[in-house]
Amino acid sequence: MTTSPRRATTRASVALAATLLTASTLSGCGVFGSPDLVIYNAQHEQLLDEIVPLFEEESGLDVELRSGKDLEMANQIVEEGGDSPADVFLTENSPAMSIVDNAGLFAELPESATATIPEQYVPADRTWTGFLARSTVAMYNTDTMTEADMPASILDFADPEWQGRVAFSPTGADFQAIVSAVLELEGEEATAEWLAGLEANGVIVQNNLVVMQSVDSGEVDAGIAYHYYWYRDRQENGEDSDTSALHFFGDQDPGAFLSISGAGILDSSENKPAAEEFVTWLTGTEAQQAMAESYALEYPLNPDASLAPEVKPFDELEPPAVDVASLNGPQVTELMTEAGLL
Amino acid sequence: MAVLALVPLFYVAAYVVVIGPVDLWHLLARPRIAELLRNTITLATACMAATAALGVALAVLVERTDLPGRRLWHGLLVAPLAVPAFVNGYAWVSLDRSIHGFAGAFTVVTLSYYPLVYLPVVAMLRRLDPALEESAWSLGHSRTRTFRTVVLPQLRPAVLGGALLVGLHLLAEFGALSLLRFPTFTTAIYDQYGSTFNGAAATAMAVVLVLLCLVLLLGELRLRGDRRYARLGRGAARSAVPLALGPWRLPAFAAAGTVVALAIGVPAYSLLRWLAVGTSTEFPLAELTEALVATVLLALAGAVVTTLAAIPVVWLAVRHRGWASTVIERSTYVANALPGIVVGLALVVASLRLVPGVYQTAALLVAAYVILFLPRAVVTVRAGLEQAPIVLDDVAHSLGTGPLATARRVTLPLIAPSLGAGAALVFLAISTELTATLMLSPIGTSTLATEFWSASSELRYGAAAPYALLLVLVSIPATVLLMRTDSPANQTERVPA
Amino acid sequence: MSSVSITGVTKSFGATRAVDDVTLHVPHGSFTAVLGPSGCGKTTLLRLIAGFLAPESGSIAFGDTVVAGDGVRPVAPQARRVGYVPQEGALFPHLDVAANIAFGLPREARSSGAGHDRVGEMLDLVELPADFRDRRPDELSGGQQQRVALARSLAPQPAVVLLDEPFSSLDASLRDSTSRAVRRALEATNTTALLVTHDQNEALSLADQVAVMRAGRLVQSAPPSEVYLSPTDPQVAEFVGRAVVLPGTATDARATCALGEVVLTEPTTGPVALMIRPEQVFVDLAPAEGAKAIGVRGTVEEVSYYGHDCAVQVRLDEGTSVLARMAGVRHPGPGDTVHLRVTGLVRAYHPAGAP
């Protein structure tokens, strides 16, 4: 006869059951469970989604990825300190590696992990290693521009003649890495001036893909990005690259800066053998070739791996000499914040 | 619970102290802040004005004229609520990349948010006693003059309340504005977060954003107070005689049709197009399912915890009125004015500093949801408890039932429907939450919103489409709930996201 | 069942003394009505007895057991065994009639045949059909709801039943039948009951004892007829019914006033206030031709016709306005000349208040 109270009790137990179910299922999903290896990944998620399964299959290890952006994750690892759940840290660009390295949070890599990588892409103390490289480029719209109209140096984009004509993505780690190279090569004052000029001239967009689209659609005449965005689009369908071309800066100009994607093992890692196995695998020929053949079109750093011939060959690039370990992320952020780009 | 809700405010305040006034000033007195302030205020003002105008015009058209098919129009005009603003932004920008900047943001945000004004105005129009208008008529005023002098002033609280809600939503909006490339404080904070994780500049911007939110919130609270007096006896016995549109029928039809076409037609077309022809369209069933399951489980856990947390707050506010309980209740609203981005930032820092164990767990994410959506549950549960007369407790006591047994046998069963409604609202809000989820989701957990975001921000529009579709489907029940203007969600003032 | 003794109970809210030194005895099995205008403290008194409030001073006892005051820790409401019947809307809306009635029964009884039988008994007691047990509260009329509320309060066999204006929300016809049924049910179970009301008809017609409260104080408690015919002071007189209060001069058993000479209930002497009930004022319509009219002459100002009777406001020739009540069979119209005289005994008050 007291049907309703009984119904209420039922409802309460359903809610309770749901909560328990939630907790248990979330742990089943890996939220509370512990995988064999946790990678903080600031490289393109799509690339890692392609290659990590290969490693898992080969090693039998269970890998969990947390994706983010270079400096966000680097600062996050520093903030987490010894409690960081990360075993391996992968970045798109090296300034983020320096932040973690300067905080003394990386463990020394085993020799096997760097054996295949040319020494200029590995810091002297072997706290991390480069595993992919990307070249800075300018893109230009082929309807409104010719190769001859493009400047000799990336610094020229700060000139008033480029007012409203050049697109870039200051919030991206890629552009910030380029700025760090300019800072390293030209000094603080020149960098601040250049940034001020870009802030006045530039069309600020959200990421490099939008840079490319803006150039292709003729919204701007030129844009600053990395090489592979354009090649990837060419390879896929060319929809966003059919009215644009790449301009490679030469002559060791800061605009020819070759940015290094890094991989490092956290000293706080409790899964060091698995982490070492992964980084060694990542720099090995098999993984390097797999990445070279993937959609990514970044330059593999292992000389035994080779990229498709359409991409400008690695040895034809004329990058400036930059010490991979010296690029300063935090100062770049400060300079860009002061210039009003962040 | 109130303490949890105040963590973000403490965080912002503590950071201000840590940075110190000199550095704070240095961080604030720069051109970028001026630009963001200009952008944020211009967009907020323009959108509040536009949604107010559009909302009132459409509400009057549907409620007070002889426009054919008014019930259908009502459904169509509320439907944009089922399309999260960031999905709408994606729909527009992926159709035509020239839609961006102020014009793009203004268009998309207005089309997404006008129902926030439309709905309360419709509810108010239904409650207004037509006798008032009839007496104005009988005093010799024309229909239009009566509308201007009698009806419009009474709609004022509903319009202002709705517009303020639009403002608060807009201050917290990240996805749509980021896709449409119109930087405001929220997008700038996220950019800073991406570059520095926990930088002084991000927090300095959060200070400004919080101040802007508090200004709007104070306006909302003042209005809420006034509105009590403005409210009339609900459930007018008769509905007003509809105004004959005459020759205006066709233009009115076209106008309403245009709004629906832009607000629903464009996103629907864009979504379907990307589903069908997008070059990168893929249907990763396993990933979709995983994201859907994670979303549903997180939303379920968040809804249950948030609703449970609302019970003591409501109970204190309704049954033990006093300044302390009012402060506790209000504090949950204040925290609610904080955008997800600030709540996320605060919880990241607070958890790392104070309880590192919970960092990057589902528990912390659920805590963020509780802070963000507690007010929704409080408002709904409060309406329920207020309808459970305290005399029933007295009766139960007199029949030999102790306080706990009374809560179990009388109070809980009585407020069960409002608990359900509150939990449903929170569930749906969580399932489309983006910013806090992006910042706090545990390793390996991705939700529909974060998967959508990762695809659409890399311009993989085709890949984003199935997630967008699921996000819309998940939002439909909440919209239906809100469409029924007699639902508790509309009887009481709704609170911002 | 037990008696209720309230001794010197006081309860304040801020500076206001809602209940001020009230002493009242409710005999075992009796029905007492606490009568007073709204805000007089009668509901507070009821809540003190129920245990929802604790008195500042004084004591409350059920039979020999002190439940509050006298240095005793107040017994919690749920342990007092009081049945409480509040105003409208007091049925648990989420429970059906049977579950409402069984609410106060012990857990075992609620789910057993004994509980089922008890619900039937109670429905029968409050004169509702047995098939009402499955109805929801919102399917019942107001009067039926109040009967169920009474059944619910009686089911656990309380020491005392407290009724807080239980009929005030019912319309006139329901109010009478419902209150009669309640009265019969209470009588049948010999339950001690305390009714709080502002309706003098309700109090007078239902109760064995009427306790009149004013501004927190108990001003009179007596059987209904005594309260009506011999109120403590003119204000009580005016509260428990319509009254004509006229200044007069008493000489032993008689007094003179604007309505002529009247006979007093108790002899007294000197200037007095005379309390005359309107039904004591006899209205003589146009006397037969040639006969001499008896009484004081006046002109009818206003007539309120009720059917069974009517109230006639008459302006006496000397200027005083007086209310008279007469059968509705034959009545005067405004402007008619009538003669008035007083029948029955009249209560006299000395200006200070005491007779």
Structural descriptors:
heterotrimer; B: mainly alpha; C: 355 residues; alpha+beta; 5-stranded antiparallel beta sheet; 9 helices; globular
Q: Can you give a write-up of this model?
A:
The complex is a heterotrimer of chains A (342), B (497) and C (355). Chain A is built from twelve helices and eleven strands. In chain A, 42% of the residues lie in helices and 16% in strands. In chain A, strands 1, 2, 3, 4, 5, 6, 7, 8, 9, 10 and 11 form an eleven-stranded mixed β-sheet that branches. Mean pLDDT of chain A is 86; it is low at 1-17 and 23-32. With 342 residues, chain A is α/β, with parallel strands linked by helices. Chain B has 497 residues and is mainly alpha-helical. Chain B is 79% helix and 0% strand. Chain B has helices at residues 2-19, 21-28, 31-64, 70-78, 85-95, 101-113, 115-127, 130-138, 143-172, 175-179, 185-196, 200-230, 249-277, 285-319, 323-336, 340-354, 362-386, 391-398, 403-431, 435-440, 448-457, 461-483, 488-491. The radius of gyration of chain B is 23 Å and the shape is globular. In chain C, the strands form four sheets. In chain C, strands 6-7-8-3-9-10 form a six-stranded mixed β-sheet, with helices on both faces. A five-stranded antiparallel β-sheet of chain C has the order 13-17-14-15-16, with no helix packed on it. In chain C, strands 2-1-4-5 form a four-stranded antiparallel β-sheet, with helices on one face. Chains in contact: A-B, A-C, B-C. Chains A and B meet through helix 1, strand 2, helix 3, helix 8 and helix 12 of A and helix 3, helix 11, helix 14, helix 16 and helix 19 of B.
